[in-house]
Amino acid sequence: MGLIRDLAIQGVQMLLVLALAPLLTGWVRKVKARLTRRRGPPLLQPYRDLWRLMRKEVVLAENASWLFRAAPYLIFAATWVAAALAPTFATGLMFSWSADLIAITALLGSARFFLALAGMDVGTSFGGIGSSREVMIASLAEPAMIMIVFSLALLAHSTQLSTIAAYTLSSNVGLRVTLAMALVAILMVAVAENGRIPIDNPSTHLELTMVHEAMILEYSGRHLAVLELANFLKLLLYVSLIACVFVPWGLAPVGSGALAALIGLGAYVGKLAVGGVLLGVFETSLAKMRVFRVPDYLGAALMLGLLGALLLFVSRGGLR
Amino acid sequence: MTGTLGIDGRSRSLGAWRAVSVDAAVWRTAVQTLAAGELQLIGLWAEPGVVRMALGDGVGEAAVLELACPDGCFPSVGAAHAPAIRLERALCELYGLTAEGAADVRPWLDHGRWAVSHPLGAAEPSERRTTYPFLPAEGESLHQIAVGPVHAGIIEPGHFRFTVNGETVVRLEARLGYVHRGLEGLMAGADLDRAARLAGRASGDSTVAYALAFARAAEAALGLEAPLRAAWLRALMAELERLANHLGDIGAICNDAAFALMLAHCAVLRENVLRTAHAVFGHRLMMDQVVPGGVASDLDGPGEQLVRELTATVRERLPALTELYDDTASLQDRTVGTGVVAPELARRFAAGGYVGRACGRAFDARRAFPYAPYDRLNFRVPTRAEGDVNARVWVRIDEVGESLSLIEQILHGLPDGPVRAEPPAGAGEGAALVEGFRGDVLAWVRLREGRVERCHLRDPSWFQWPLLEACIEGNIVADFPLCNKSFNCSYAGCDL
After folding, report:
1. How open is the CA angle B350-B351-B357, to the nearest 5 degrees?
2. pLDDT digits (tens, 9 = 90+) for B44-83
3. What global pTM score does this model have?
4. Residues B308 and B439 grouped into a single domain
5. Which of residues B93, B124, B155 is at a domain's end?
6. Is B177 within the bounds of a domain?
7. Using CB atoms, which residue from A36, A208, A293 is nearest to B481?
8. Residue A272 in contact with residue A26, Cβ under 8 Å?
9. Which of B144, B265, B476 sits opposite A290 (nearest CB)?
10. Of B155, B482, B484, B485, which to mutate for an interface test with A (greatest number of A Cβ within 10 Å)?
11. CATH of the domain at B274
C-alpha cells in the first residue's frame, strides 16, 4: 500500500513539473511584457503553442540523420527526469535517493551534448554557430555548477537535494557566507544555462546573435514542440533547484499528510511566481553581452563557487 | 563661381545647379579629381546614350556632368573611385551601357531572373544567369555564413555573405536588388501626379523626403516656385518624418542588443508622431502629401495644436530615455567601440546622414544647398568623431532635439497664403538634393509636355551600404545586427 502511495506521489510530482513548466515560461513572458508597457500574450500561450506545433507536420532536411530525429526525445527525457527529481512540494519522495545534484548536472549535460550534436547535424551555418557558442558557454557553466555543488555538499555533507534542503531548514545554518556566494553563483549559472539575457535572448529574431534558438532553427512540428517543452522544463528545474536549496520553507517533509502536501504545493507555486518576476525584472534591466564577455561572467560564477568552497576550509568551524 | 565647379563645357540650368555637357577627356579628368578626393560623388545615372554624374565639393557647390555615349561606352568612374562601382553596375545593366575599364562587371540589380536584360535599353531576351561569384576571401579555417534574403524578422530582403574566422568577420559582402520594382521604367511617361506618387514609394520610411526631392526637381524643371506656406509645411512634414524614424531607430538599435525597454518607450513616442501626422495630414507616414507645386493638405488650427502637444510630449520624455541609454552599462558595453567607420572612408564615400556625421562629416543638404525655409531657420548639424554605433545613436538623439526645435520654429513662423500652385504642362530639366532622415536624397527629372520623360532618384544608402561592409570587419558576427541597425540603410531605395 505504502509503495503504491509513494509511487503515486512521485507520479504526481513528475506530471506537476510537466504541467507547470509552460506556465512558468508564460508567466516570465507576461512579466517582461508588462515591464515594457505591453499587454503581452496570455499566460496559457505556451500551451497553445505546444498544441499547435504538435499538430503540425515535421519538415526534415534531406540530409538529416537519425540523430536529428532522435535528439529531441532524448533531450526531453533527460530534462524531464532531471526536473522530476528536484524536490518541488515535498522532500523524501520515492526517487529522492537519486535526486542528487551531480546526477541532475549530468542529465542536463547529456541533454546539451545531444542538442549540440543535433544543431550541427544538418550542416547549416546557424546550427554550427549555435552549437559552438553553446559548447563554449557550457564548458564554463558546468565547472561553475560543479563548484557550487561542492560547496553545498561540504556544508550539508551530502549531494542529495532532500538532505541539503533539510540542512538549510535546520537551526544550525546561521548566516553563512558560503551559502550566499553559492546562491549568487547558481543564479548566474541558471541565467546562462537557460539562455536568458544577458547571455542569450530567448525572444530574438536575429539569426546571427542566437545561441539556443540557432541550434533548434531547423526543427519543426512535434520535434520543435518537444524541444520547447524541454526548455520550459529546464527553466522550471533551475527555479525549483534554487528554491529547494536556498528557500526550502513550506516543503512537505517525509511521510507528512495531505495538508502538508497542499501547503507545500501552494508554497511551490508562490516560489515559482516570485522567481518568474525576479527573472523578468533582471532580464528587462540588462542588455545582452558580447559573446566574448560570457567567459568573464561565468568565470565570476566559477570564482564565487570556488571561494565559497575555500572559505569553508579556512573559516573557523567550517568543517565539523 | 560659375556653378559648374570650373568644369569646361556647354552648360544649362537645372534649377540650383547646372548641367555641363562634357567630352570623354573632361569626364576622365573629373573622375581623377574624384579619385584624388577633391570632389565628392553625389550621383551617377544614365539614359540610353547618355551618362550623368553629379559632383559636389561637399560644401555648397555642385554640378551635373553629362557625357554623350552614342556607342554605348563611357570611361568607368568606379575603376578609379570605388563609391561609384554599384551605381555603375546598376546603370550598365539597366541601360545596356558599358563602363570601359571597370574592375567589377558582375551584375547588381539583375539576378538573372528578369525576362529581358537591359530593360531600359535594348531590352533583349535574357539569358538567365543564376550563379553570382562573391568576392573571395581565402585562408585557413575561414568559413562562410549566408544570411538572407529571407530573414527571421520582418525586415526588407537582402543577402549578406559573411566570411568568418570563428566569430570574427573577415569579409562581408551584401547582395541587394531583391525589391527591384523598375522605378525608372515606371517613371518614364508617367504624368506628374503619378510620378510624384511613385517617387514617394521609392523607400517608404523616407516618403516625404523622396516626394519633396521629386517635387523640387520637377519645380526646377518647370521654373515654378511652390508658395512660401507650402515650403514651410513641407519642412514640417520632413522634420516629423525625421523625428519618427530617429525615435524608432534609437529604440530598435537598443533592442538589437536585447534591451527591449528602450524600444518599448521609443516605440510609444514614434507612434505619437505617426498618429499626430495622421490626424494632421491624413496619413501616418504623410505619403502623397508633398506634390509638385506645393502640398496636398493645409495645417489648420487644431492641427497646429496637435503638433505643439507632440513636441511638448517628446521634449518631456526624451531626457529620461537619453539618460536610460547613457546609464545602462550593459548597453554601452555593446554600442561603444562597435562597428567603427573610418572618417577617411566616410569622406571618400561622401556618406550622408548620421553615418557620415558620426565620424565627423558634417554634410547636410539643408545647410550645403539651402532650400526654403531652412535658409531662415536656426539649426545645428550635430557631429561626433568616434564613428561607432554609440556615435550614430547620439547623432540621432541630437538630431531629434534639432528637429523638435525646427518644428517649433516652423509653427512659430509659418506664413499665410496658398499651399499649392498648379504646375504648368511644360518641359525642362531639374535636379534637387533634399535631406532625408538617412541623408541626402537626389532627384533628377526631365519633363516633356507635362509628363516625365526620365527620372532618377538616388538613395543616400548607395554610399552607406559599402561602409557597413567595411565597418564590420574585425568585429564579431553577433555584433552585425547592431551595426546594421545603426546604419539602417534602405534596401528598397537602392533596389529602385
Report:
1. 115
2. 999 888 999 998 887 888 888 889 888 888 999 989 999 9
3. 0.89
4. yes
5. B124
6. no
7. A208
8. no
9. B476
10. B482
11. 1.10.645.10
